[in-house]
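hey can u check if this looks right to u? its 577 residues, i copy pasted from the old doc so theres a chance i mangled smth
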Amino acid sequence: MQYEDEKSLELLKQIFLAENNERLEEFEKELDEIKLLLNDKEKLINLNLPITAELLRRKIDKSNDEMAEVFYPIFGKALKKQIAESKDEIIDILYPIMGQTIKKTVTEAIKDLYESINLKIDNALRKGIFSKKIKSTISGVSTSDLIIQESFPFLINEIFLIHEKSGLLISHVSSSQNDSTDADIISSMLSAIKNFVSESFKSDSESKDLYEIQYGDSKIILERGLYSYLAVVVKGQEPIDFDEELSDLKNDIHEKYSKKLREFDGENTFLKNIEIPLKEFLHKYKIKIPIVEEIKPKPVLAYLLFSILAIILIVIGIIKIPQYFTEKSIDQQIKSKISVIDGVDLENISWQNNNGKVILSGMVNNFDLRSRVDSAVNSIKDIESFKNNLGVLFIRENPESIITEIKKDLAGIDTENISYQVKEDYVIVEGLAESEDTKMKISNIIAKVPGVRIVINNLNVKNAKWDLVEFEKLLNNKILYFEIGKSELTNEHIDELKLILMYLKNNSSLKINIKGFSDGAKTISNLNNAKSRAKSTSDYLTSQGVNSEQINIGFDVSNDKNLLNNRRVEFEIASKD
């Protein structure tokens, strides 16, 4: 019984397992097919492509914004990377499309511009080139500029007069009779724009003003005044003098209405007729419509203009030609007169001659040359007035060269009793001259020496009456200074003593005191130095012919803060017998 049960159980197991084995084999076969499908990418793509495309289409239709947010970072970075790495390839792709589009647009624009310019210039030339040449000659503007100016006319469309502080419209004129523009709104907008620019672009030191607004082929020119400003809407290229005339218009308005403009509160009744200058200015630049038909120039007008021009030229010739030859003659005379003056370089001198009124300018080496040039030019009879603006080109020289040059120039004059002191640019002459003429001659010669600007002539004349008072002043002011420990006279000291020597020799009854000084305490050494200085001065004078009885010597010490001033010799008159 037990055996049969086991056999039945085994049979049942075989039946169950057989059915499961068949299913397992089918699963294994399907699993192998799936593995093959997953490993074959092409089949997998072809299998999923229809589903993915449909899924994306539905998602884009239902959630457009969400899809853009998802894909933007990916596509944006990819596109930037592609452009950065493949610029040439992208240009090659876009060039055929963009190039043709741009070329076509530019070609059409240039063609339209070319036809417009040709039409305008042709219309301008039809009006008569001869009249434009005459107008060009009279006005000074080239013919080509006049043709271009008429070909591209300038027009003022509107003029707004706006209060500077409040931005309220004061007055408005327009070239259009059917003007429907709200001028008040425009004026307010202009003021707002102007204030915005002024505040937005101001620097630390000052604000910036707005002067022009460009829109399309028109522009708004702003001319600012103290209490109001002008806003002029124009079309075309403004004439050269337009800015100046616009400024004059602003100034005229402020000159006539300054008080009312300052007190303006929006009420226009107090500003009657203020639009009149605006209308006149607008009418001045009103376009005259060109006539396309050919207009033949009128010979009568041409002949009349030519005759007027000829008369003007004849009158100018009658006035200017004699004046020209007179001025030329004066110039030649000035040149010939100056060129013969020794020491004058014509390259450094120029002059202006206006109807006989001559102004001379330039540089000469000294005052003597300036005076000689002045005399030469004044001698020309045709000159009505003369102004000498010549400057003196002063040349600095060292004192030694000046003294050498003075002695060289005075070689023919007895200068034994004459001494010179050179201090920067002036010379002091002292001593005894033979006569008054010799004295003046010496001054004139020294004045011509290069480097000398001033000559102080202290020369006395031989056999002239000596002035004791003047000599006493000279003697009291005469001081000889010595170096430390020195008592011998130098050449400079000897030059200083020449005048004293001559005076004592010519006045034997005159007696003087010579007092020597030294610095420091009254020691034997210092007192000996002071005595030696006084004695060496006295010995020199007696060696030159002065009677020893005319001289008294003394000595002492001095304690001035400047030690050089302490080591000195002073003079004074002892008696005037």
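DSSP finds 17 helices and 15 strands in the chain.
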